[in-house]
């Protein structure tokens, strides 16, 4: 928009946070004709969606894929012009590094919980298989309003199925402790099914039957050519093209309600707004809400986070002979340091374009385990190579490595999480022109974050003074 063009849009909304949640909210607001400013405290956009290069090859240093069977992420990619770049994994068959061997990831389970006890043959011990089968004989368990996922599954099927399969699968999503993770918040379909069936096995089978009846050709997961981290950059470009203002290195230190709306104190001075969307981590939102909503601030301050590190490695192709598949997960009960490895050049077509190089990465760190954060980069590379060598026989030395630390990267969803989110939203809803969104509320995945951002934007747009064409009573 040129300087001499009159801005006729109604209302000014400030979005605090330039991760995918904040950008999705800003994109939604702009489409409705609202003037938008995005304030991001860091020097880049995207949050945990972080594209980069290693030895000239594009890859992700953060999240690498999104659930494609939820529409929000795919729809946003298409809306900002990169729908054609969406790609399913070239290879989607993962393994489990179980008791010193790489075994194929079992089929026929819901987040590690099997519908057929024999599906875990080769993963569980004979004793573990017998304990798993007892689920069919145990009396019904009252699940209540919420329960710890790991504890519930262990009570029905035994700890071995939790430790050997559920924990590594959930660890890849939340980097959390599955024995304290909310079943209702983390696997809602399983929670609902378990409430209406006498056994956990029957609950899983009901989900599988429903999934089969509605099955489509849509891949479960999708990435984007060049890395999923290109999504926030494309959204940001669309925001700027529509006249939105995005400011980097602009942390917000204070948020106060005024007679005219809201005032935000930043390093660059004050910013006035008719409405605000807080798309920041829980601890940052808590600090900003301390004055306006002490109740919401206290609830958000109690949200815990896990930290993790990603080690991305590039090898000469002639020196590497990786197993087939997209990578492997690691049960923490076996005592290894890494929790997973992705064979990036085998999983994603765009990471396999250099005929001389092979890329892979490892992840380290879970809730309560932050030792990795205090190790030097070279040490994290060394422990990754040691575990990779033991798991796959890899003996080559990398030609390049990149270590990315995500401090406080993943919010934890313990029992009662959804009730806490409900209390936060109730408190915030009492403040006109203020909403919250982000990974701390309704899910850590990309589609869930986008859905939460759209909800926040739509509720802001429902404020009469911000609807285009209706006079703005708040002013600026």
Structural commentary:
Pathway: Porphyrin-containing compound metabolism; protoheme biosynthesis. It comes from Streptomyces beijiangensis. It is an enzyme of class 1 (oxidoreductase). The chain has about 475 residues and is an alpha+beta fold. It contains 15 helices and 22 strands. The strands form six sheets. Strands 8-7-18-19-20-17-21 form a seven-stranded mixed beta sheet. Strands 12-2-1-16-22 form a five-stranded parallel beta sheet. β18 and β19 (about 340) form a beta hairpin. The chain is globular and about 70 Å long.
List the helices and strands and how they pair.
Elements: E1 12-16, H1 20-31, E2 35-39, E3 51-54, E4 57-60, E5 66-67, H2 71-79, E6 86-87, E7 94-98, E8 101-104, E9 109-110, E10 113-114, H3 126-133, H4 149-157, H5 159-174, H6 183-186, H7 188-195, H8 200-213, E11 221-224, H9 230-241, E12 245-247, E13 252-258, E14 261-266, E15 269-273, E16 275-278, H10 282-288, H11 294-301, E17 305-316, E18 327-329, E19 338-342, H12 344-347, E20 357-364, H13 377-392, E21 400-411, H14 417-429, E22 434-436, H15 446-461
Parallel strand pairs: 1-2, 1-16, 2-12, 7-18, 16-22
Antiparallel strand pairs: 3-4, 5-11, 6-11, 7-8, 9-10, 13-14, 14-15, 17-20, 17-21, 18-19, 19-20
Helix pairs in contact: 1-9, 1-15, 2-15, 4-5, 7-8, 10-11, 11-14
Pathway: Porphyrin-containing compound metabolism; protoheme biosynthesis
GO molecular function: oxygen-dependent protoporphyrinogen oxidase activity
Keywords: Cytoplasm, FAD, Flavoprotein, Heme biosynthesis, Oxidoreductase
